[in-house]
Amino acid sequence: MSTLTAEQIRRYDDEGFLVVPGVVSAAMGAALRQRAGEIVEAFDPSTTRTVFTTDEQTRHSDDWFLSSGDKIRCFFEAEALDADGELVVRKERAINKIGHALHDLDDVFTPFSHAPLHGEVLAELGLADARLLQSMYIFKQPSIGGEVGCHQDATFLYTEPVTVMGLWFALEDATLDNGCLWAAPGGHRTSLRKVFRRAGADNADGTVMDELDAAPLPVAPDELVPLPVEAGSMVVLHGLLPHWSGANRSPNSRHAYSVHCISAAAQYPAWNWLQRPPGLPLTSF
Ligand code: FE2
Asked: What angle do CA 242, 248, 249 make, to 5 degrees?
């Protein structure tokens, strides 16, 4: 029996994304939000000043980021720090995201991430042998939640061939005011424009962004459509789909959790920024 309707599958094939309401129960959403709060509470902000912005990714690709593929780490909002690197808001309002192995290492996020329903949805949309690669808890903090520039996820999670798909779960209502997702319908049928890769074997070598195709991504937000969704919704994103989310200047946060998956059969380059040690192989649903 199918989890998705034929119409949902057709829409995903046409548009490169699919909104599925009511996937995360209110109780589960509350449990995930609470657990994220506990992780931030336990986080010592003196251990890093690493911020997360996609626009300036190459400038901030330090060891804290490059070695986080098999860890649970906090990353700051750019506007949470002043020019001297001091926090200008309290810690629980300063974190941009937690990444990138919540789906394997956390007692609350691991079972949620591996829910069979998620694997069934991916399989019905074309990823039958999915492996969970990366997870992020995204806060999009009130007033200072940063823009995530228009990008394709395959730029950051590349496989040969491209197989990455994203599952994005709204844990609070995502609105036009608090920085909901925007996407370019049909844009998944265009080329991959860039790849973000390690510049060398060591984290200290940093990263570079290689251009594969000079065709510009759609200009955000004018050439994209907004995807406001209620808390509990799941948004499935094709790895080539151009998408964007604006800054949050509203007084409300916009918490979301995302899991990115790839095909077990695809080749995973050693130059991808995210590398996992042999002792922590990718898991399936
Ligand atoms: Fe993305």
From this structure: 140
- What are the residue ranges of helices labelled H in the chain? 6-15, 26-42, 63-66, 102-105, 109-113, 116-124, 153-156
Please name which of 210, 181, 211 lies closest in space to residue 198, comparing C-alpha atoms.
210
Cα 151 to middle of ligand 1, angstroms:
6
Determine the distance separating the centroid of ligand 1 and the alpha carbon of 256, expressed in angstroms.
Answer: 12
Check if the beta carbon of residue 126 is closer than 8 Å to that of residue 16: no
The C-alpha atoms of residue 75 and residue 146 are separated, in whole angstroms, by 12
pTM exceeds 0.85: yes
Distance, CA of 273 to CA of 215 (rounded, Å): 24
Q: What is the pLDDT of residue 262?
A: 98
Report which DSSP code applies to 59.
Answer: G
CB atoms within 10 A of CB 1: 3
Distance from Cα 159 to the centre of ligand 1, integer Å: 15
Q: Sheet with 181-183: list strands edge to edge.
A: 148-151, 243-245, 181-183, 225-227
- Bridge-partner residues for 20, per DSSP? 234
Q: Residue 58: its pLDDT value, please?
A: 45
